[in-house]
Amino acid sequence: MSTKKVKVAIIGLGFGAEFIPIYQKHPNANLVALCQRSEAKLNELADAFGIDKRYTSYEELLKDPEIDAVHINTPIPNHGEQSIKALKAGKHVACTVPMATTVEECAEIVRLTQETGLTYMMMETVVYAREFLYMKELYENGELGKVQFLKASHQQDMDGWPNYWPGLPPMHYATHCVGPVLALTKGEAEYVSCFGSGTIREELIKEYNSPYAVETTHIKFRNSDLSAQVYRSLFDVARQYRESFEVYGSKKSVEWPLIEGKPLVVHTAKKPEPEIPEEIESPDYAKLLPKEIQHFTTQGVYDSEENEHLSFTQGAGHGGSHPHLVHEFVEALVEDRSPYPNAKQSANITCVGILAHESAQQGGAIIKLPEFTLS
């Protein structure tokens, strides 16, 4: 393994705190700075983890020549603007989902990576979760046979979440279900068609002028016979939290459990009918990681009653994905290669959601993905 070290700063210390010890333990990373608007929270975490460089100003942090890369974990409306600022300041960027909130911001991030040669990676948890890695292993080993269809959902009750969440159009935060359907085959979305269904409460509708309780999108893959279906709900739908991903192949198919914590169901073709389905506990994939960070697939900062973050507790620990995300980003920089998902792939995933909502507003109209999102 290379001895090169990437000097990283973490921006935003709510969910972002989860990544502090992972970067500290990664053999090719050096966590040099933290940034948080609240000085009290900043000092509390920086003291706890022994980090000297502390910034309450993102703009000041970007002037620091010691920092090679930033990992952005701020509220969704800030992602695009802050990623653009970092690339213009000469920093590599890892950013939590989604990439941005507009097609224009996505385009600018892609343009800047092409212009500067800097690396951008959207830190999509689902495509590094153990369940996805299990299905990916089946796919790469040929056990699924020909992939025929992909399906995913993300349903969550967001009542009580603060700031910009109330009334958010479901497809504006769709990367957790769009990401895996595209990532399995490294496919690209060519066009989308989406329908809205149902109606949320009046006080929620006025926030974004979006009435839909559920949005369901069909994604047509580019240069492929595949399509996928994804659906998303945030308010006024009775459903336990669920981020599901299902793949249907000619030899085997894998379906997500209906209840959180239950095993995956693997269907094998041509067996006697009662023997076709089998419940499978997804293995952990810590073996893919450096030994120093392997234990983070099953534990982290927010895994106790004293330390809880809604996105982590509702997200079932994000399938052990956090150390895999850090490793992919850091190793891409060390090896001077493109991470998955890179800027174009992240834009393709993110723009599916943005354009799907536009499609719903137009009664299901077909909308093509922009050229800049395609390889």
TrEMBL record:
What Gene3D superfamilies does the annotation carry?
A: Dihydrodipicolinate Reductase, domain 2, NAD(P)-binding Rossmann-like Domain
Q: Which SUPFAM superfamilies match?
A: Glyceraldehyde-3-phosphate dehydrogenase-like, C-terminal domain (SSF55347), NAD(P)-binding Rossmann-fold domains (SSF51735)
Q: Which residues form the GFO/IDH/MocA-like oxidoreductase domain?
A: 132-254
Q: Which residues form the Gfo/Idh/MocA-like oxidoreductase N-terminal domain?
A: 6-122
Gene Ontology MF, one = nucleotide binding
Name of the protein in its database record = Gfo/Idh/MocA family oxidoreductase
- Native organism is Maribacter algicola
